[in-house]
């Protein structure tokens, strides 16, 4: 039973991480329908920026966190402005390959400056955050990441529901032409959603780095794990991303614990194919049926 | 002997046959012949073994890229699993050659057919999905095939890899770079000729119709799903064929080669070369393989110059960077790829000295 609870807790926390990582991805897809293969690298950029600020520049944690968020915001904005805006209206393959190329560029840069080794942050979370559940101890990082995840989910929920920018973003996601003709500045919305998504990605990158340590290859691999998560949750649903992340996380840890550790990395993709064949719009995605 | 005609200075085509003709003038035939003579008669004898090895890699990549171009450039289905299909071909050839002891000339096409079947299985989602959903499905296919190649140990020997027997053709032993050069490039010429002609038949036209507008194609009586599967099949056949030759050329294979980054390299070839263009796929193969080799050369150079090894190691990351930059710059500035540049250069010459 303890083993089960241990797996459950692990699965939930890994799943929450996947969900957090997927959130930025969904935001980009929702407003500009770009499938972002560079998402893992955006996570890594945030994680490494935080590393530089905390260890090398020696900023206090809160300031470093805020500066990382601001830096990621600017990065996302720049990526949209420089690379994706010229491709508005181009066919899908170019947009996909552009993000693949960007992923390669970011990865090359990060490897050049930091190498492929594992880096770690200085310890900064108070140990008192850990929670004892029966015989199972939940480490402080997991508590903190769950807390951050829930806070961001609520914040984004409110942002999309009530703020004008959020409503513009939803309108663009719903129907670009209609939004344009009603006076929404679509390009500005694209830029803003990339900037916000990169900010979320930077934040998730920090959380990932705190839990697993920071390694370029591992973080960019999580960028690919995002695909099963978002397909399961629905490509354009932010809540779906969190729930999809939790389901995939649980699935991974239980397969790893009860069946075979080697299956762990392939099960999400097997699920992905099944979901695509049965219910391609996922659990919470907008059903937009086009039979071919 | 027909009269040698020059290119007309405009579009004066009067029939469909003129539109789909391969050679508009006999000059095209002439230059092709010259090119083939240079390729087979001169190149293998004047180049160093290393250059010949690079040429062989280019040839293999070109066969595979031609296949991917049929899928992406002509049918409009984006596949991120081409590298895995290449691996399936390599493993199929290796297993057929070691377990069943089949000869080289049976193994290679058989591996192609095995891969075509695999490709059609992984193309089944295209019956319901299109666009980015299909792309994600092929991404999943890539990971699933990779997993099977590593973990089906009774068949693929896992991470140990397989060592292939010597390739023989018509009683001749094929080993070393020069004999393989002939095998690879004769195959490449045949495959190019085949692709060109597939695209001139009803199948090729159906693929293009599906790419341009699938609903209109269905309305005009093209059964979309069988044609999409056929496209997956043909493209995977090319990948498997190339993979099989590659396996015999490399002698021993392991599963580490056939990762997502190989798939990405093939897509990069197709895009940098030019989507929906047969010379484009070959240009792309030359460009990407050449880029890889040049960057490897630079890396080695820096390593040997006795600079801090840390810096030399970091050069390896610059390969990734240069590769990404090449893709991004081509997409932003010349999305039609090298084939378009080639066309512009040619049309400048055609109208010389009155080009505008």
Can you tell me about this structure?
- The complex is a heterodimer of chains A (292) and B (356).
- Chain A has helices at residues 2-32, 39-56, 61-84, 92-114, 140-162, 164-174, 176-181, 186-212, 216-233, 238-259, 267-278; strands at 131-133, 136-138.
- Chain A has 292 residues and is mainly α.
- Chain A has one domain (2-278): ABC transporter involved in vitamin B12 uptake, BtuC (Orthogonal Bundle).
- The mean pLDDT of chain A is 83.
- Chain B has one domain (47-350): ABC transporter involved in vitamin B12 uptake, BtuC.
- Chain B is 73% helix and 3% strand.
- Chain B contains 15 helices and 4 strands.
- A two-stranded antiparallel ribbon of chain B has the order 1-4. Chain B has a two-stranded antiparallel sheet with strand order 2-3.
- The interface between A and B is large, with 43 and 50 residues.
Quote the CATH topology of chain B. ABC transporter involved in vitamin B12 uptake, BtuC
Strand order of the largest sheet of chain B: 1-4
Overall morphology of chain A: globular
CATH class of chain B: Mainly Alpha
Largest sheet of chain B at a glance?
2 strands, antiparallel
Could you give a short account of the major beta sheet of chain A?
2 strands, antiparallel
CATH class of chain A: Mainly Alpha
CATH topology of chain A: ABC transporter involved in vitamin B12 uptake, BtuC
Determine the mean pLDDT of chain B. Answer: 84
Strand content of chain B: under 5%
* Computed CA radius of gyration of chain A, to the nearest angstrom: 19 Å
Number of domains of chain A: 1
Question: For the terminal residues of chain A, how far apart are their CA atoms?
Answer: 48 Å
Number of helices of chain A: 11
Backbone CA Rg of chain B:
21 Å
> What is the second-level CATH architecture of chain B?
Orthogonal Bundle
Helix content of chain B: over 70%
Regarding quaternary structure, what we see is heterodimer
Query: Count of helical segments of chain B?
Result: 15
Form type of chain B: globular
């Amino acid at each position: 039973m303890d083993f089960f609870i241990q797996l459950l807790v692990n699965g939930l926390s890994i799943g929450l991480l996947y969900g957090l990582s997927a959130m930025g991805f969904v935001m980009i897809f929702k407003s500009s329908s770009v499938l972002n293969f560079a998402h893992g690298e955006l996570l890594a950029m945030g994680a490494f920026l935080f590393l530089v600020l905390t260890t090398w520049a020696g900023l206090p944690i809160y300031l470093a966190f805020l500066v990382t968020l601001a830096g990621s915001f600017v990065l996302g904005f720049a990526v949209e402005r420089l690379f994706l805006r010229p491709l508005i209206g181009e066919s899908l393959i170019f947009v996909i390959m552009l993000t693949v190329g960007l992923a390669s560029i970011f990865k090359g840069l990060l490897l050049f400056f930091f190498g492929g080794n594992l880096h770690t942050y200085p310890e900064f979370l108070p140990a008192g955050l850990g929670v004892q559940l029966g015989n199972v101890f939940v480490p402080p990082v997991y508590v903190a990441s769950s807390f951050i995840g829930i806070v961001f989910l609520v914040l984004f929920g409110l942002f999309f529901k009530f703020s004008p920018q959020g409503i513009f973003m939803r309108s663009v996601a719903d129907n670009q032409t209609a939004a344009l003709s009603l006076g929404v500045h679509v390009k500005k919305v694209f830029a803003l959603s990339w900037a916000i998504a990169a900010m979320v990605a930077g934040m998730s990158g920090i959380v990932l780095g705190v839990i697993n340590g920071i390694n370029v290859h591992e973080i960019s691999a999580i960028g690919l794990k995002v695909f099963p998560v978002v397909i399961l949750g629905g490509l354009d649903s932010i809540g779906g991303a969190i729930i999809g992340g939790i389901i995939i996380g649980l699935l991974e840890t239980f397969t790893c614990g009860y069946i075979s550790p080697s299956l762990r990395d392939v099960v999400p993709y097997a699920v992905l194919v099944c979901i695509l064949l049965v219910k391609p719009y996922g659990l919470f995605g907008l059903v937009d049926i086009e039979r071919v | 002997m027909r009269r040698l005609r020059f290119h007309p200075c405009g579009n004066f085509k009067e029939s469909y046959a003129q539109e789909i003709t391969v050679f508009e003038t006999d000059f095209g035939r002439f230059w092709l012949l010259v090119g083939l003579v240079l390729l087979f008669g001169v190149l293998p004898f004047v180049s160093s073994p290393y250059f010949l090895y690079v040429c062989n890699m280019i040839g293999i990549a070109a066969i595979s890229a031609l296949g991917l171009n049929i899928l992406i450039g002509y049918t409009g289905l984006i596949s991120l699993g081409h590298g895995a299909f290449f691996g399936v071909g390599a493993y199929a050839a290796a297993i057929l050659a070691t377990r069943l002891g089949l000869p080289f000339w049976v193994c290679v096409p058989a591996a192609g057919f095995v891969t075509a079947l695999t490709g059609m299985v992984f193309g089944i989602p295209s019956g319901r999905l299109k666009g980015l959903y299909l792309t994600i499905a092929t991404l999943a296919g890539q990971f699933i095939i990779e997993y099977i190649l590593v973990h089906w140990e009774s068949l693929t020997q896992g991470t140990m890899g397989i060592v292939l027997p010597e390739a023989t053709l018509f009683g001749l032993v094929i080993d070393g770079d020069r004999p393989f050069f002939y095998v690879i490039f004769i195959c490449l010429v045949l495959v190019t000729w085949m692709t060109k002609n597939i695209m001139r038949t009803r199948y090729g036209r159906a693929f293009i119709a599906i790419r341009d507008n699938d609903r209109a194609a269905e309305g005009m009586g093209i059964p979309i799903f069988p044609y999409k599967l056929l496209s997956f099949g043909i493209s995977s056949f090319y990948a498997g064929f190339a993979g099989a030759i590659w396996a015999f050329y490399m002698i021993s294979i392991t599963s580490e080669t056939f990762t997502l980054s190989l798939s990405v390299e093939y897509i990069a070839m197709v895009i940098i070369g030019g989507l929906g263009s047969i010379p484009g796929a070959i240009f792309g193969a030359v460009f990407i393989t050449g880029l890889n080799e040049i960057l490897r050369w630079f890396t080695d150079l820096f390593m040997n110059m006795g600079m801090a090894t840390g810096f030399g190691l970091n050069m390896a990351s610059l390969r990734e960077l240069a590769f990404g930059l090449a893709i991004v710059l081509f997409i932003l500035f010349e999305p039609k790829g090298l084939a378009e540049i080639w066309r512009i250069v040619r049309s400048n010459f055609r109208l010389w000295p009155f080009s505008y």
